[in-house]
Amino acid sequence: MAFSTKTDSSQTRSRTKNLFYNPMFRAIIFQLVAVAALAFFFYSIINNALTNLETRGIATGFDFLSQEAGFGIGLTLIDYDETFSYGRTFFVGLLNTALIAILGVILATALGFIIGIARLSPNWLVSRFAALYIEIFRNIPLLLQIFFWYFAVLQVLPSPKQSLQFGESIFLNIRGLSIPSPIFEQGSSFIFISLLIALIIAMSYQYYAKRKQQNTGKQSPVLLVSVAVITLLPLLAFFISGKPISIDYPVLKGFNFSGGITVLPELAALLLALSIYTAAFIAEIVRSGINAVSHGQTEAAEALGLTRNKTLRLIVIPQAMRVIIPPLTSQYLNLTKNSSLAMAIGYPDLVSVFAGTTLNQTGQAIEIIAMTMAVYLSLSLITSLLMNIYNKKMALVER
């Protein structure tokens, strides 16, 4: 009996020893310890911060979000005035940040691809110009470029009374670019529904044309048909519904323009600087991605009689995208985070109106900074998720 007990104890120690030397088990234990240590670290910091705030009589919590803000914001995509709450200022700043990020990504991508392709042009003048663009704009700090566009370019424009006029209803002055704006009246929703239907029809036709080409080898005029459907169907709905969309033109009244839409100089300067700066890096990514495609692919396309434009669009770019997408994602993330420099010229983004003015008025530093960090983290994660989905779609599928 004693021998049996000794044997069981020896087997238990052996199993414990084997379990300890198991790499999977040790990895789990080390990770749990690391998570526990990290949680204790942040708990200690937050607890000490809250204790210090209570000692100084500073209130904590998110009750301040329902208090009246009492300050105006120059650019708002939703209804806002001084009587709205601090919670409303958070959403105003969030939408302004999202606006500059989305517009910047679109413009930087378009400009970056154009410059990157021009960098490889056989035309010496075009390729040298693209190289000069890249070397200049990616080596000048972004903040200096923002200052250049805002102070050296836009702030020297004339006053509203001496505005630069383009056509009959577009005016450029020191207070911004005033352009006509649409007014959506009753029945305009019918036009948006028709536009959605047109997009569905265009995508369905694109899918049909792709399957047809795979089965028969015949190409269909996808671009022409798609443009025609997306243009003509909403236009037809516009006339059928009684023209429910009118135009509001900017008119000079006193010392400024009223009516229409005014693009603030702060928005224009920030958008130009972010787009031009980021496009320089995207151009190099595009150039390296195209160079990564085997030259034999180009030679095979030329042997089949494809033009240079079709070779680039149908053969080279689709293969280069597998190399371009991962670093391109990083540039999108950088552009979104760099938009926080808007505070330097007074563009009302999240950092300016929420982490700036709201923080100064309420003193709720921990809550406001935590919410601001969470917004930028969420925007980065959403961007990464969408780009990873696109990257997975473009990846080679093994058979």
UniProtKB/TrEMBL annotation:
Membrane topology: Multi-pass membrane protein
Subcellular location: Cell inner membrane; Cell membrane
InterPro entries: AA_ABC_transptr_permease_3TM, ArtM/GltK/GlnP/TcyL/YhdX-like, MetI-like, MetI-like_sf
Keyword Heme recorded: no
GO biological process terms, semicolon-separated: amino acid transport
Bilayer-crossing regions: 24-46, 90-118, 130-152, 190-209, 221-241, 261-283, 341-359, 365-390
GO molecular function, one term: transmembrane transporter activity
Pfam families: BPD_transp_1
Domain (ABC transmembrane type-1): residue spans on this chain: 94-387
Cellular component GO terms held in the UniProt record: ATP-binding cassette (ABC) transporter complex
Keywords for this protein: Amino-acid transport, Cell membrane, Membrane, Transmembrane, Transmembrane helix, Transport
Matches recorded under NCBIfam families: HEQRo_perm_3TM (TIGR01726)
Family, similarity comment: Belongs to the binding-protein-dependent transport system permease family. HisMQ subfamily.
Protein name in the entry: Amino acid ABC transporter permease
Organism in which the protein naturally occurs: Photobacterium carnosum
